[in-house]
Specification:
440 residues; Growth Hormone, Chain: A
């Protein structure tokens, strides 16, 4: 990728002769580096957590369901607060920085945590940090990007993010390979990467202050979040999130069926993240051209098939790889795409709050789904629980497709455009296709 000079005010890159590469704000790349380092840290913990809890600490699947539910849902407690605080203060960088610092501190707290209560407390602190930072960070990405290329901007950020997510389990796997059972070493290394991410955020990410518009009234934010432009996307995201379980359950299902060594468990996260980072930019481009709501719903179809592959009685390397690729496809088609979809349906000064509302709905729904699935596994068994979940998700996909029908029409989104200053310091992404392919 190459950093280019400042855009000319009012210039349309699609109209410049010979230009075939879309431009993504340099701020997006810097935030991607922060996320890369932070995800190395967080995925080191996530990769070993299922085995650490069930094998090292001797906790059952229901206990893991509680922890996984907290991992998915605890951030919901502060997501809207983080988004609103970033919007109101016009200093989203520093709100996001506080969230990154909180998560970094939680890494060291894993060292003395040996019981369910202690582990859940540490996981909760980490997820509260994630909830505080995510919406302000995504608002920075949206503000620094051309509205026609939001899918690609979020796709690039998620690609860098996922490189870190793929590296994290590899680091954890390597440490456990050379020092078997040394989970404390994993926790300390995780802390070091988190501190590096905070340093890049503080020292290199520009402080993009929003325009001063006075205090942002709570009533106005509530009108934005409950208005007709957001209502259907939020309901659709919640319905689909209810039937989305954490990766750990699928990986435990694959391990239970194929009986591979626990030391290889972190590599399952690597496989998913490699597929994710490979597909994030292409599916972001597809979302900009075909429609973000269509790609978002289609991603859940890939998840449905992943459930069925994980539930199949016959396993092997091929089935495991297929499940990981499908999971990566799901994340590439939904994570950044949902933020891109929602960011165009609220006004620019409430963008962080709108993104946070969608993320909150999703994590609350996934929290409930994780708790329910942990119980279903114990009551029905692995295969039956996954098949039931696949059937429920199919119903959710049909409902979400109906709710999101027509949501990508140009007239249905908030009229927001990026200023020349927002597009300053752009980055060219090789292989991302012609700018003229945007389709809107």
């Amino acid at each position: 990728m190459y950093v280019s000079v400042r855009d000319r005010p009012g210039a349309d890159p699609a109209g410049e002769p010979g230009r075939r590469l879309p431009r993504v704000g340099a701020t997006v790349v810097l935030l991607g580096v922060v996320s890369l380092l932070t995800d190395v840290s967080s995925e080191m913990i996530a990769a070993v957590l299922p085995v650490y809890l069930t094998a090292e600490l001797g906790l059952g699947l229901l206990a893991y369901g509680v922890v996984d539910g907290l991992y998915q849902g605890a951030s919901a407690l502060v997501r809207i607060f983080g988004g609103y605080l970033g919007d109101r203060s016009r200093r989203p960088k520093w709100v996001a920085t506080a969230g990154y610092a909180l998560s970094a501190a939680s890494r060291l707290a894993m060292l003395p945590a040996h019981g369910l209560g202690a582990v859940t407390a540490v996981v909760t602190v980490d997820r509260l940090g994630k909830g505080l930072r995510t919406a302000p960070r995504d608002a920075l990405i949206a503000d620094a990007s051309d509205p026609r290329r939001l899918g690609r901007a979020f796709g690039l950020h998620r690609t860098l993010d996922t490189i870190g997510a793929a590296a994290g389990p590899l680091v954890a796997f390597s440490l456990l390979w050379f020092v078997p059972g040394s989970y404390s070493t994993v926790f300390v290394a995780s802390f070091a990467f988190a501190v590096l991410g905070v340093a890049v955020m503080v020292l290199l990410v520009p402080d993009r202050r929003g325009r001063s518009m006075g205090a942002l009234p709570v009533r106005r934010v509530l009108r934005e979040l409950t208005g007709p432009k957001l209502r259907r996307p939020l309901v659709a995201a919640g319905v689909l999130g209810l039937f989305t379980i954490g990766d750990g359950f699928i990986y435990l299902s694959l391990q239970d069926r194929d009986q591979f060594a626990a030391s290889y468990f972190p590599l399952l996260f690597v496989g998913t993240n490699v597929a994710y980072l490979t597909l994030a930019i292409p599916l972001g481009r597809l979302a900009d051209r075909l429609g973000r709501s269509r790609v978002f719903v289609g991603g859940h179809l890939a998840l449905l098939i992943a459930y069925l592959v994980a539930a199949a009685p016959v396993g092997g390397l091929g089935a495991t790889v297929a499940a990981l690729v499908l999971l990566g496809t799901f994340y590439a088609a939904t994570d950044g795409v949902l933020a891109a979809l929602v960011s165009r349906r609220v006004t620019s000064d409430a963008r962080g709050s709108g993104i946070a509302a969608a993320q909150t709905v999703v994590v609350i729904a996934r929290f409930a789904g994780a708790l329910a699935f942990g119980s279903l596994w114990q009551l029905l068994g692995r295969q039956e629980a996954l098949c039931l979940l696949a059937g429920l998700l199919m119903t959710g996909v049909v409902m979400a497709a109906w709710l999101l029908s027509g949501q990508d029409r140009p007239g249905s989104v908030a009229g927001t455009t990026a200023s020349a200053a927002d597009r300053a310091g752009a980055v060219q992404v090789p292989g991302a296709g012609p700018a003229a392919e945007d389709g809107r």
